[in-house]
Amino acid sequence: MSKYEHIQQSAFDANMQLPKLNLVIFTFGNVSAIDRNLNVFAIKPSGVPYQELSPDKMVIVDLDGKVVEGKLHPSSDTKTHAVLYKHWEDIGGIVHTHSTYATAWAQAQRDIPVFGTTHADHLVVDIPCAAAMSDEMIIGDYEHQTGFQIIECLKTKELSYRDIEMILVGNHAPFTWGSTPEKAVYNSAVLENIAQMALLTEQINNNPPRLKASLIKKHFERKHGPDSYYGQ
């Protein structure tokens, strides 16, 4: 039994949720799962169709993105995951997809505004879109720099990764994260749903009102506040 089997299984299970939730097609997207004690994470192999995946095909890499165990090449986005894990020490899973609606907002280089209570159930601010990457970053270590593109966006907007577990990368696509790979997948599905509803809202009314502050506060705090009462 491999000492990495637990994170390989976790990464596999989370990756298999992406096509089930209609967040990916073909080989698009990836999920990783980290073991903080071992300082390694398991990630989907690059370009392998989901129906061909198995736990043992999940590649083990270190926090510099170097392969520790595995016969396949890891995801091309591995260095982005590595940067985020290295700088955000209490996240347990990361998801990257090219889901249709979230990616459309990323391509438009737009934050997703808080239009309704579904958004406010999860975030009290707009879902941020990182600025398009500079030419200097693109011609450098691209995937490595994508991690810093994400980090810098939150820093510039004075947002914490602990409060904002999803982002759009300008002209690219979304990334989400969470305390576990399962939570990161959940956040990815929520992001796609919010992105779709926001687009439809703007199609129905090309100048829709933003959700008022009192409703944002109520809906967020009833789920996440000190006196939350949603759920069992």
Describe the protein's architecture and organization.
By secondary structure, the chain is α+β, with helices and mostly antiparallel strands. 40% of the residues lie in helices and 14% in strands. The chain has 8 helices and 8 strands, in the order H-E-E-E-E-H-E-H-H-E-H-H-E-E-H-H. A hairpin with a 4-residue loop joins strand 7 and strand 8 (174-178). Helix 3 crosses helix 7. The protein starts with a helix and ends in an 8-residue tail after the last helix. The model has no long low-confidence stretch (mean pLDDT 97).
Task: Furnish the topology, listing elements before pairings.
Blueprint: H1 5-20, E1 30-35, E2 40-43, E3 59-62, E4 67-69, H2 78-87, E5 93-96, H3 100-107, H4 117-120, E6 129-130, H5 135-138, H6 142-156, E7 166-169, E8 174-178, H7 181-204, H8 213-224
Parallel strand pairs: 6-7
Antiparallel strand pairs: 1-2, 1-5, 2-3, 3-4, 5-8, 7-8
Helix pairs in contact: 2-6, 3-7
Termini separation comes to 37 Å
The name CATH uses for the topology is: L-fuculose-1-phosphate Aldolase
CATH class: Alpha Beta
Backbone structural class = alpha+beta
Overall pLDDT level: 97
CATH architecture: 3-Layer(aba) Sandwich
Count of DSSP strands = 8
The major β-sheet equals: 8 strands, mixed
Q: List low-pLDDT spans.
A: none
- Give the DSSP E fraction (strand runs of 2 or more residues): 5-15%
Shape descriptor: globular
| Spatial order of strands in the largest sheet | 4-3-2-1-5-8-7-6
Query: From N to C, what is the helix and strand string?
Result: HEEEEHEHHEHHEEHH
Q: What is the helix fraction of residues, given as a range?
A: 40-55%
Give me the Rg, rounded: 18 Å
Total number of helical segments? 8
